[in-house]
């Protein structure tokens, strides 16, 4: 049902798949303030995309995009990131549609720098307001140094299979958590065996790992979201408050039949 609703919202333009990932140096804070850190991730990713879209040097208009939160790796370790499905282009204030230049949406190095800046600025605000766990000045300075020590890479590409390909990919995760039953291959009363994607040559496409039952449960519970938290959010032309009106304007600009 979710996929069917998303298909009805697709515009007749190329779509782009982006991923905004938090560095693992934030995992300790996420463990203690997951709701706040997840909200900050959504806000920073959305603000970054909206800022680039509004810039006349890029598109000068409003995007249509959806963000989906994922928190896991194949081995159930914590790996917090949001996937973005973004329509290729923007609706401008004069009612026209502007397509992206040169076959890509935005320059990824610039996206990464702005995303990092927005997230760290928000984190500094939360620290100043006392919303984060208590830290000494040296501890906070060390964390900020770690966050600035490397680039925050934003993955971005135009999917070869179009928007349908990304929707099918995201649809496998939007209403599930961390691991599917088919990946669990053994239970012996002490350990759980499950399949993960192989990352090294010679391992084939899959390999099997074994975890103590208590460790398996600990990792699984890392990915239970805070009560009432929405892991799927829509922005720009897809924002619920004015979606019908704004999508109609975009379709008119693109001369898409009703």
Structural overview:
It is a single chain. This protein has about 260 residues and is an alpha+beta fold. It contains 8 helices and 10 strands. The chain has helices spanning about 1-10, 25-30, 35-55, 110-130, 135-150, 160-170, 215-220, 245-255, and strands spanning about 15-20, 65-70, 80-85, 90, 95-100, 155, 185, 190-195, 205-210, 230-235. It has a 5-stranded antiparallel beta sheet with strand order 6-1-3-2-10, with helices on both faces. The protein has a 3-stranded antiparallel beta sheet with strand order 7-8-9. Helix 1 (about 1-10) runs antiparallel to helix 6 (about 160-170) and helix 3 (about 35-55) crosses helix 4 (about 110-130). The protein is globular, with a radius of gyration of 20 Å. It starts with a helix and ends in a 5-residue tail after the last helix. The mean pLDDT is about 90.
């Amino acid at each position: 049902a979710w996929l069917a609703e998303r298909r009805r919202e697709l515009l007749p333009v190329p779509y782009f798949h982006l991923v905004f990932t938090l560095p693992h140096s934030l995992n300790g804070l996420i463990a203690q303030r997951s709701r706040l850190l997840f909200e900050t991730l959504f806000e920073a990713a959305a603000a970054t995309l909206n800022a680039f879209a509004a810039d006349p040097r890029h598109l000068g208009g409003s995007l249509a995009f959806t963000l989906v939160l994922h928190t896991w790796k194949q081995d159930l370790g914590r790996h917090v990131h949001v996937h973005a499905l973004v329509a290729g282009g923007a609706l401008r204030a004069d009612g026209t549609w502007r397509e992206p230049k040169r076959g890509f949406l935005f320059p990824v190095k610039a996206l990464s720098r702005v995303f990092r800046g927005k997230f760290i600025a928000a984190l500094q605000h939360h620290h100043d307001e006392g919303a984060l766990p208590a830290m000494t000045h040296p501890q906070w300075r060390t964390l900020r140094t770690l966050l600035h020590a490397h680039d925050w890479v934003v993955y971005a590409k135009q999917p070869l299979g179009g928007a349908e390909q990304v929707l099918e990919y995201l649809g496998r995760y939007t209403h599930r958590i961390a691991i599917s039953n088919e990946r669990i291959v053994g239970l012996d009363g002490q350990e759980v065996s499950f399949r993960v994607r192989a990352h090294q040559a010679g391992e084939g496409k899959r390999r099997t790992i074994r975890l103590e039952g208590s460790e398996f449960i600990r990792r699984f519970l890392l990915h239970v979201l805070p009560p009432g938290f929405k892991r799927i959010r829509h922005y720009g032309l897809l924002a619920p408050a004015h979606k019908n009106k704004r999508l109609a304007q975009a379709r008119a600009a693109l001369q898409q039949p009703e």
